[in-house]
Each structure stands twice: as C-alpha cells, then as structure tokens.
Amino acid sequence: MNDLRPVGMARQPVALGCFLMAALAAGIIGLGIVLVAWLNSGSTTVALDDARAYAVGSVEFVPARNVFVVRLTETEYLVLDDLDAANRANQGRRCRVQPLHAADPARAALVTQYASRMNPKAAGSTFVFVEACNSAVYDVTGLRLDRDGPNLDRHPVDIDGEGRLTVNIARRTCTQRLAGNLSAPRECEQ
Predict the structure, then answer these.
(1) CA gap 155, 162 in Å, rounded
(2) CA-wise closest residue to 70 among 83, 84, 58, 53
(3) Predicted TM-score (pTM) of this structure
(4) Which class in CATH covers the domain with range 45-185?
(5) Is 16 helix (H, G, I), strand (E, B) or coil?
(6) Could you identify which of 53, 55, 129, 143 might form a hypothetical disulfide with 49, taking C-beta atoms 3.0 to 4.6 angstroms apart as the criterion?
(7) Is 179 left (phi over 0), alpha (psi -120 to 50) or beta?
(8) What pLDDT digit, counting tens, does each position of 64-116 carry?
C-alpha cells in the first residue's frame, strides 16, 4: 500500500510518542535533582568553624542552628541547645536561653548565689544563661542552677579531618540535676 504523505513528514503518533518520552525523561531528571538537593539539605552533621577559632572559655551562638558552642578546655567542646526542656514541651511558647552580658549586675549576683551549685567543669567561670519565661538559670556547661530539673540538651560534637568542629544536630543527650547527681539521664522531649 502506498503512503501518500510527502517525504520527511513523520506520522503523528510517532512524533507525539517521541515528545512524551522526552518530557518524561526531563521530568525524571528534574525529580532526581530535587530529591538529591532535599536529601542533602536534611544532613544532620553540620560543619562549623575551625576548632581553633573558638577560644578556651568562649561561648558563641550559632543562630542558624540555635545552639551555643562552648569551649571549656584545649580539648573539650560542648554544643548546647538554646531551647530548654520546659519550652521544648510547651509548643505555644518558645522562650530561649540567653547569656547574661558581663556588665549586667544580675550576672554577678547569680554567680555568687549559685556558685556552690555550678558544675566543677565551670570552675572560675562567671558565665550564666537565663530563660526569662520560667526564670531558669544554667551555668556555662548547661547545668541547671536555680533548682533540680532538666539541664540544657547537648549535641554530639567532634573535630573532622580538616580541623573543623562538627555537630550532629539530629541527636541530643538529655540529662537532669537530681538530688546530688548533676547529670542523671532523662528522656529527651521532642
């Protein structure tokens, strides 16, 4: 049977099929790119500055992650969450802990008042965190000072092969001060 179409004109179903296959391939590639970007954005390990950039005794806030990086000694770092247990449990109110400025007269008074309750690792430190909604007070290690109760949550911290501080923001260690035990394990609030 003779095909009466001019030479070079494809049949309609073949052209439509080719177009649909090309569109499907582009869609799959686009979905793959979005999926890879989404998976990488949810990475739980975050690289911070070079570990040496944090001075011994320093406390630095990382606003993108809502954590405080504390360097206690040449080799010991802590990463503390800025949301305490009471505020984590209360979805309607989110008061975050804040450091008291060195010039704030309340800081000296709190350090004097709670000196005997401070973590021995905080010896000599005059740094305190306060949470205004419940008046909670914590020392530089995140230990609760004003009463027994949950301490500030900690995130695992390490130094990578390039010397940068790395933090696993998806994991937390949760402790509480209980009758003489400064860091009794407790279940973490979501």
Answers:
(1) 20
(2) 58
(3) 0.76
(4) mainly beta
(5) helix
(6) 53
(7) left
(8) 999 999 999 999 999 999 999 999 888 887 899 999 998 999 999 999 999 99
Sheet holding 157-159, edge to edge: 45-50, 164-168, 157-159
Provide the edge-to-edge strand list for the sheet that holds 181-185: 149-150, 175-178, 181-185
How buried is 97 (Cβ within 10 angstroms: 0-12 exposed, 13-18 middle, 19+ buried)?
buried
Tokens 């503390």 sit at which residue? 80
Paired tokens of 84 = 């305490």
- For the chain, percent of residues with pLDDT exceeding 90: 67
- Find the helix or strand (DSSP H, E) in which 60 lies: strand 59-62
Calpha distance 56→146 (Å, rounded): 26
Q: Is 15 exposed, middle or buried (0-12, 13-18, 19+ CB in 10 A)?
A: exposed
Residue with tokens 């179409």: 5
**Whether residue 36 has pLDDT greater than 50:** no
